[in-house]
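Give me structure tokens for this 718-residue protein.
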Amino acid sequence: MGRLLYLGILFSAVLHLVLSSPIANGPAANPKGNARVRRQTEDVRDCSDPGNPVYPDTIVRTESQLTALRAEMMAKDLDAYIIPSEDAHQSEYIAEADQRRAFISGFSGSAGLAIVTADYAAVWVDGRYFLQAQMEMDCNWMSMESGEEGVPTSREWLVSQDTNGMKGANLTDNAQIGFDPRLISVSSYNSYSEAFLEDGRGLVMNSTKVNLVDKVWSDDKPSYPEEPLLILEEKYTGRSWQKKIYDTRSEYDTIRELMAEKLADALVVTKLDEIAWIFNLRGKDIPYNPMFISYAIIGTEDITLYMHDMAGRATAEIKDHLQSEGCSGDNCVQIKIYDDFLGDLKALGSSKTVWHSDTSSYAIYERVNEERRVMEASPILLMKARKNPTERQGLKNACWKDSVSLCNLFGWVQEKIDNLPSEDGDIDYLSELSIEAQAIKVRERWDEFTGLSFKSISGFAAHGAIIHYSSAENTDVPVTRKGTYMLDSGSQYKDGTTDITRTMHYGTPTALEKESYTRVLMGHIDLVNTHFRTGVYGRDIDAIAREPLWNNGLDYRHGTGHGIGHFLNVHEGPARINIGYRSHEKPMETGMFFSDEPGYYEDGYFGIRLENDMIVVPAVTDHSFSTYEYMTFEMLSLVPFDPNLIDFELLSPKQIDWYNAYNKRIRNEVGPSLDERGRKWMESKTEEVSYTFTLNGAGFDAASLIFVTACALFSRLL
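Here you go.
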């Protein structure tokens, strides 16, 4: 009995040492328990003295635009005017000619909603852009930080009579809320109308035939590009446009088969990436996204493509591709001018059953007869998101090419760092913009490369904390050993789209930088290793990536993962990995591509994000409960992480195993194609890591200690 008691006491002591070690709980990032606060820097506006605001160089002055817009509103008897980010196709990324919100407010982020009244001007921004809005908007504008405590939604703000402008618009009864019906989705229109009806004061949505921002902007408003279209061969797409629309010999559902299930005579296609995907065409109308301005109507007896710059783009080659020459049958494509679309739709919608998405514009909605409308998500969403085998292989190839390119890039950066002329750096020697430019050069070696998939985010130190920072001549800084450097960049190849982020530190990181990076990496690893079944949404697994951060009071204000298109948009629905319900979201399925990008951002100091691209694949399991399909992720991006920023004592054995296996893949799959500089850098970052416990700083292997102790005691008991 005494021996058993002794054994129990000894085991308890050993386990206490292990569980109380830094490995189990992690280093205390904030030992005094003080809450983190947002730090103000010289890079953001100061509106504390309305008569004497202080602005950084990045601010855009908007007094003249607002004065002119308010004059137009007064002439139209409008009390408020809504200016969304989107274009007529509800695109996230838009042509310069459609950047109305940026023109009127100065805020250039890809998402945001502006509303102007006689007294106030406000822009709603999400967590990616909190800092950026303060850097770009002058004090004529209120920055409404969506999701933060006490911040009203745009609907709540319009109906509120609070005299504090941050809380409400304080509009009079029967106020007229103006909007361009081409730019507001029907679902947004309905949400405003329902809020106004519930409010009961007679506020009304009032559409304008002419966009009022366009009237103000008319003198120097850009025009749409007129670049020729690219025909994407079937060796890249895996399916012809005929197989997508009507050829039932294909193993996949066709668009017309899906239309028949809804008893629809016609399908209206408004999303530019859907049109590009259907017809295997690409353009250059949208920066970084290979789209062309167009609409399409696919009928049971005809197919019509409404094309901007039809005269210049409907070349003999394009007509031959679409079988348009002399088109008169069911299975050829008639090409018409872009401006004919809304008129044709009105005629069609009065007599035919028309299917359009509820994300389509209100202008489309009001042209279709209520009794003959099918308003549901576009069937193209899932057809496009579930990549066919050719698209999957193409995306894998694209990720490999980007991995080679980035390893060579970071080898170039490392060589520059090793030869810095001074510890303070030199903006002409190595800077955010020079690395950004080199990130393009290293990709130009590939024949399939057509450009970047978004403007690179190249941020040193405090700039990395601005989630969607965009370096420019007036913000560019040297990159040195004195802070973290983050590069988020991606490519458009004919065989796929990529998006990858790495954060490096070329000197000695702080304890918080190292812990934050490590916890981000832990979440990144845990997410790619997770298993899930049929019917699981990305929102169901988002917390897996955040848990290592939450475990010590850290988090980030953006999604963990987004879908990625095939030589299309870098952000693709309908699935995503993010907290919160979204009505149009769909469960994850095999063949879908996602990013894996947790992060952490310490305002005014540093930013960390680690992002790879991955594909949903079937999981290998011993069991298969019910009829569910079990899935997991396969990582495709192969670029080393920075061991200088990793506290390996925080990682579990499983995470260490994954890390070593990942590095082995980099050495084997990417290493042989690197230049000498890139290979040297890659090898220095991919050395194998052994897992050992540390007991209160003493160099003991805890697992071995427990095992040896147990064996010794049991041998004595026996």
